[in-house]
Amino acid sequence: MTCNIRNVRLPDDYRAIARVLNSYLSEPTTSERLEGEDAKIPAQGKLSRDEAGRLTGFDRLKLVAEDVKGNVVGYGIAWRAPWTPAGELHHTLVVEPQVRKQGAGGLLYERMAEWAMQIGASHLNYAVKDNDPDALRFAEARGFRKARHTFESVLDLRRKGKAYAAAQAGNGPFERSGIRLDTLSEWPGEESERKLYALYCRTTPDIPGYRESNPEFREWRKWTLELPGAAPEHVLLAIAGEQWIGVANLVYHEETNSFYHEYTGVDKAFRGQGVATTLKLEAIRLARKAGARYLRTNNDAMNEPMLRINRDKLGYVPVPGLYRMEKTVSPLET
């Protein structure tokens, strides 16, 4: 296939990029959503080095592949955020199904790899669907190897299965323990948001496979509380006395009338007491009340406690997940 690789032209390319990404994403995106995400990021990147000489800071390269008629058929982005581990760069590369195996993906990857070499990245991360053997072979042929496996699960809210029966039972034992449930909408203001941020910071390091540092508060707020579909009434809190001990955060997807269970976290001292299960049941009740069709979530393969809750207790059904592929390089070998 003859194709042209070029830098994105924004905002003109947003619609085409959304179309390409939607051939890969579990939940559809839109040009408006992509533009909103870009508006949160400074236009000019700022890369640096730490004391060990590893790449730090943030920047991104965004490319499209065009066919001979000028139609966008592929999209690639190489990026790092300030909280990305030092030396690392993330890759996303998608080619429309009808033109795969014709060279567009390889050309996009070459340009992304060249940029990685230029900026001195030493470690590349690339996500591949676990039911896409062609994409897996593409990554492995370029030196990537499986590092983690993230399972995706879906709960059909229209069916009266395990989750329905459990949710109907209420939170009696939970309430008798002195722990109560609230939502963030009942705690307006920055002070409460910072309290929630502190809970995220305490609990995210314990997630299997999590290697990022915590962003500073303003960045965390942009990518958590200001996501499209996020709302204070969808942030569930478990509170013991004055202490916020657990959180479950849901993000609504209008395009599919569904919720994504973005995060569940419980303080170490309160784990093993049913807090996470109760938060998840409350999330199911919330989503059902809103008339959503389903709940979707992701869990690392090593996060057995959450997988057991979701699948054994609540009846979430496995759907295709993701392999995190990794490649360690030196700047001269990228």
UniProtKB/TrEMBL annotation:
What protein does this entry describe?
N-acetyltransferase domain-containing protein
Q: Which UniProt key words apply to this protein? A: Acyltransferase, Transferase
User: MF terms per GO, please?
Assistant: acyltransferase activity, transferring groups other than amino-acyl groups
Domain N-acetyltransferase: residue ranges: 3-171, 179-330
Q: Would you indicate the residue range of the signal peptide?
A: none
Top-level taxon? Bacteria
